[in-house]
Amino acid sequence: MTPVAPTTICLDARTVGPHFPGIGRYTINLARALPPLLGEHERLLLLRDPIAESVEDWTAGDPERRSVVDVSVSPFALRQQWVIPQRLRALGAGLYHSPYYLMPARPGVPSVVTIHDLIPLRHPHLFTPLQRGLFTVSVRLAVRAARVVIAVSAATARDLEQRLRVSPQRIAVIAEAADPIFRPQPADAVNALRARLALPERYALYVGSNKPHKNLQRLVEVWARLRSYGVPLVIAGAWDARYPEAKRRAAALGLGDAVRFIGPVDEANLAALYSGAMLFVFPSLDEGFGLPVIEAMACGVPVACSDASSLSELADQAALTFAADDSDAMADALDALLRDPDRRVEMRRRGLARAAQYSWRSTAAATLEVYRRALTGPNASR
Fold first, then answer.
1. What is d(CA 380, CA 171) in angstroms, rounded to the nearest whole number?
2. What is the pTM of this model?
3. Hey, how many other C-beta atoms are within 10 angstroms of the C-beta on 106?
C-alpha cells in the first residue's frame, strides 16, 4: 500500500499580539483546540511572528501534531504578497488559513479566510476614504483567494452575501467561544484584583477598544444619568489616542471617578475583573461576533448589550438588549440591572447557560471540516 502523505495545514498566527486582541485570541484558541482533532495524516503548522509575546503559552506540547515556523513579515506589509506564498511552497503546505482579511491575493495553495466583520462597509462614515478603500480592496481579494470563507456569525455571513456577493455555498458560519480561562473566579482572586486596581466592591464594566463603532461616548453620557447609584463604570481595554471623545465627554460632564479608564488588563487578570463586576455593558454599534459579551457571561456577570448585528443572535434572551443609538433604551436596561438584584441573579443564570453552548472544541471541529472541504472540493467560482 502506498503511504499517505501528511497534509500540512498552515494557520497564520501573525495576528497574535497586542494590535489584534480579538483576532489574536481567536487564533490562539484554534491553535490549542485543533491538534487533538487532527486525523492521522494531518498536522498543524503555525506561521508565527517571532517577536510575539508569550507564544510558548499556546505553542507548547504535541510536537507531532503542531509545530511553529517564524515568519518575519507583517500582515500590513506589501511584501507578504510574495513572501508568504514562497514560504508555503517551501514548507509543503497543503492548505493555508488566514484568520484575518490581510492575506496574500494568490497564496498558491487551497486557502480559507476568516472574516470577522465588514464594519468599514456598514459604517463608512466612521472611517477615512483611504481606510475604506484599503479595506474594501483587501477584503475583496481575500474572499476571492479563499475556497471557503468562515464567517463568525450569521450577521457577518449576510454581509458577505449582500455586500461582497460571496456565494452562500462558499460561506461557513462558525461561531467563536470564550477562552476556557473565562469562568467565575474565586473571591480571593477578585478581591486581590480589586485591591490592586483600587476598585470598589460594586462596579459596572466595559471591556474593549475605544474605536468609534464601540459607542463609548454615548455610554459615558448615559452613565452620567445613572451616577446617583454610586456605582463607577470601569472601562478596560487598549486606548487608541486617535479617538479621545469618550474621555473628553466624561471630563466635560464632570464625572470624575464615576467613570474610570483603566487601560488594558492582561488575560491572567481579566477573568477576575469580569467576575467582580456588578454588571457588564457593551453598547457597540456593530460587531462581527462580540467576544467580550460571551466572556462576561461565562464569568457569571449579568449583561446589557446593544442588539446590533451579531449581538442580537449572541444575546438570545441571555442579556438585556437595547438599540445602540437609543440612549433612553440603554439607560433603561442599565437601570434595570442596577436597581434589581433579582434581575441580576436571573441574567447571571441565563448568561452562564448561554456561554456553555459555545466551546472552542466545537469551533475547532467545524473549522477542521472546512479545511477538509477546501482540500477536496472543486475551486469555487471567484
1. 11
2. 0.92
3. 13
